[in-house]
Amino acid sequence: MPELDALKAEAKRLLDEGIVEMVIGFKAGDTPLHPQPAFFKTSEEIDQLVYNALCQNNLATYLTRFPKTQKIGMLVRGCENRSVNALVFEGQHPRENLYLIGIPCEGIIDWRKIIEKTGEEVISVFEQSDNKILVESKSGSFTLEKTTLLHESCARCIHPNPISADIVIGELLPEGDPALAREQVAAFTDLSLQERHAWFRQEAERCIRCYACREACPMCYCEECFVDHVSPRWTESGTTPAGMQGWHIVRAFHQTGRCTSCGACERACPMDIKMTYLTEKLNQDMRQKYNFEVGLDTETPPPFSTITLDDKSRFIV
Amino acid sequence: MSNEAHSPYLPIPMHVLHAYYESNDHSLKTLELSFDDPQDAREFFAAYNPGQFCLLSVIGKGESALGIASAAWEGDFVRFTVQKMGSVTTALHELKPGDPIGIRGPLGNGFPLEDWKGKNLVIIGGGCAFSTLYALTKHLHHPSNRGDYGKMTVIYGTRTSGLCMYKQDIAAWHQREDMEVHQAIDVPEQDWLHHVGYVPDVVREVQPSPVNSVAVVCGPPIMTKFTLPALVELGFTPETIFTSLEKRMKCGVGKCGRCNLGPKYICKDGPVFSLAELNNLPADL
Amino acid sequence: MNLILKKDQLNHQLNAWRQDYEVYAPQSLQNYTHFLPLQDGFELALDKAHNTRIPPKALFLPTSEALLKFTRVGGYEQVPTETTPRLIFGIRPCDAHAMTMLDTVFEQERYTDPHWQARRDATLLVGLGCHEPCQTGFCTTVGSGPFNHAGLDAILTDLGDIFLVETLTEKGESLFSQLETATEEQSAQASVLQQAAAASMPIAFETEGLKEKLDQNFDSPYWEEISRSCLSCGVCTFLCPTCFCFDIVDEAQRGERVRNWDTCMFRTYSLEASGHNPRPSRVERTRQRLSHKYTYWVDQINQIGCTGCGRCVRYCPVGLDIRAMLRKANQLPSEVAHV
Asked: Lower Cβ count inside 10 Å, N or C end of chain B?
């Protein structure tokens, strides 16, 4: 569990000493299952800082809102740190204007898994240090194992530790087993073509084009998203199969070499759509074909975001 | 049965009669459209009131909201002047005589001409927003209408003389006894005989009297923003100052939500509002 | 007229209706409930969750629908709206109440939307009241309630093994003509339960004076404070039963002019061709959303444009709670000096 007092102390120090103008973290939610992203500007406000396994948003998504000159502190877990690195590489914020407080992460709980077990009327959720989650709901009291509630992206997380934070608060955790990620991809690629298409169609057809996935994703920061482009119109705008499939496929491809497997997209989706199976396949391709994994540093050029004059493929130059 | 129920989303089929550029830089083009079905023409003109707009429909591209720039007495056609801005207006610029086109309208409230009877009218326009004021002026010029209104003062400013619309008609207006015309451009040009300066300043120069008068202002937001106070300075009250608003539109009939200004829809409750009404609406433009 | 429908007779009743109507009822889809047409062997999901994920407005205003079909160069025709008689069973009072508000938008005298009208005319709504109201709902705060009648042809109260059926319209009466009349005792039991359900709901925020506060504080920093973490996605508005905004788009490849759900929360919603955007950030857009529901609707129809269904609270990806936002609004000054 994150050491909340140490986190608060460091965040306060950053603000008191003027190292940053704002610290991005979480505060208690107005409902038991959703702590809210918070933007702390003063030391006193840090008293409201909360950090637990229900903090389910990738905070790096907020980075691109702020001017590059602004000095910002952020609490980052493994995936968030890599997202920040990816954004720094893409020129979205200079690293020297960021102060990252790193938190080794034991995984984010999928609130949907809680309500599956306890019903929707959850009254309170308490995370114990022994990896038990105590839930009070209208249907009774429940003691649940945290490991059974983890969001799938976290259950197969390979890099739980923040790798380039300015300070790490908490015990470093062992790296995850890459085989878990390969398993998920294999579960999809081992299917026949028809089965894969049926699976893809079944997921995509629930889409209502609310773009929660896009807004929750730190790497989707384009001022004009391809779906908003009018002349030409790249994909159909509505909830026709062509439109929804076009949206999911192209967004996944725009994430190639950029997605840090955080799963924020799936957690944000109001229709419980699975989408990481697409990006995980692309991430695996990047690892296997280009020996590249995004966000491990801020210097290695992502293969699909860079071009050099001695590129093997000459078609663009 | 639903299949026969008239849909407000169904464009009236028309064809392009004439298409010609208004401005020397070709950014403004006038289209005159005729109705395929004379019954549609009858219904349109029975409902039409200057100040209203239509949604011009280019099948395959989309729709664009444009003020109606003609008076009913001019004939069984409807005139629009289109500024080339985005994908639909570009498609409109590419239309030639004989091309099919649709319109939905007349939409909106139009100018409150009944309330303005007996009053002097101060008509102030800027840029391409002058199109509905042109329609208003033409409407008022008709002998059956002219007698119902008092003195007419038209103040029309454009950035350059080349951007001035309806040049021939306006040249003729200068010769009329029953109105005063004040044209303006932003910066001096050789051979320019009229005012030089921004419209709010020209209004102060011309000093139209507020006595028994209404003023109607149509122009880019920045022009309107500074012209309204100039009129207030001159003694016009919020009830006697009118303007026509613009916002992104889609349905044009008060259903899609996007053109709202507080509880009012610019497409349905407007686009013409008095300053008194605007003072009660949020500054959400 | 109060009638009794035994729970073990429910499926039989639904199948009887299926002879004359396409019947929709909440069923499980993935991990949530959804109004789906009943097929043979159907399984209802009335107990799983209080409300369907997507509100039943989707059955009248589809997420996407074609308005015009293009026939040849420049040619087009109106797409007819299907008018199959339908019955929606198990709609909650918040959602039915919201339908009556949407009627004021789509069935205006001057311009009636034929697609909406045709579907509404052909559909009956049989409601299921909430005897154990949900925590995220706040229907009683906004002038609705767990057993509110607005928009319903009949409403059911769950009394254990039986439903008490109150028919509210002629059409509703005709649906239940085979049932036995409820006893006075049963009616009284239902009444007590209904009042207890409504009374059990805490008042989420103060509505007295709320409109004035929102109107007066257009430029207040309040709007930035409450929208700071908002992602500006469309979840709250798309899942909202009173939201109706739509976009109209020409899909040249499909040969259709379609209308799609749209939201004031998207940046492109009021973006003009010139590049000017009256609502450039989530601050202005959040102000528009809350103001539309809690003051502009009030001006238009004298009702708050929200029926407290709670979906925006449950599914906001960053946990924003409109009730908390409005409690904060309650703290705003009522009279603000304008320069």
From this structure: N
Task: Quick: pLDDT tens for A43-58.
Answer: 999 999 999 999 999 9
Q: Is A231 on the interface with B (CB under 8 A)?
A: yes
Q: Do C50 and A212 touch (CB under 8 A)?
A: no
Q: Is the ipTM of this complex over 0.85?
A: yes
- Look at residue B258 and tell me if it is in a domain: no
Give all chains having 3 or more CB-to-CB distances under 8 Å with chain B: A, C
Domain hosting residue B58, numbered range = 12-107
| Nearest chain B residue (CA) to A231 | B87
Mean pLDDT by 10 residues, chain C (339 residues): 94 96 94 94 84 96 96 86 93 98 93 94 97 94 97 96 96 92 96 97 96 96 97 97 97 94 96 92 97 97 97 97 98 79
Q: Which residues of A47-62 are buried (b: 16+ CB within 10 A; e: fewer)?
A: eebbbbbbbbbbbbbb
Enumerate the domain spans of chain A: 4-110+150-290, 111-149
Distance to chain B for C68, nearest Cα, Å: 7
Judged by CB atoms closer than 8 Å, whether chains meet at C68 and B9 is answered as: yes
* Last residue in a domain, options B55, B86, B107: B107
Number of domains, chain B? 2
Q: Which of B211, B227, B244 is the last residue of a domain?
A: B244
Q: What is the count of residue pairs from B and C with beta carbons less than 8 Å apart?
A: 127
Report domain extents, chain C.
2-199, 210-329
Asked whether residue B135 is assigned to any structural domain, the reply reads yes
Residues from chain C that touch B257, judged by Cβ atoms under 8 A, are 244-246, 262, 264, 292
Q: Residue B210 sits in a domain of what CATH number?
A: 3.40.50.80
Single pTM value for the model: 0.95
Listed as own residue / partner, the contacts of B84-91 with beta carbons closer than 8 Å and 24 or more positions apart are: B84/B26, B84/B27, B84/B28, B84/B29, B85/C273, B85/C274, B86/A230, B86/C273, B87/A230, B87/A231, B87/B61, B87/B62, B88/B56, B88/B58, B88/B61, B88/B62, B88/B63, B88/B64, B89/B64, B89/C273, B91/B58, B91/B61
Q: Which two tokens stand for residue C203?
A: 């008042």
Instruction: Answer yes or no: do B103 and B79 share one domain.
Output: yes
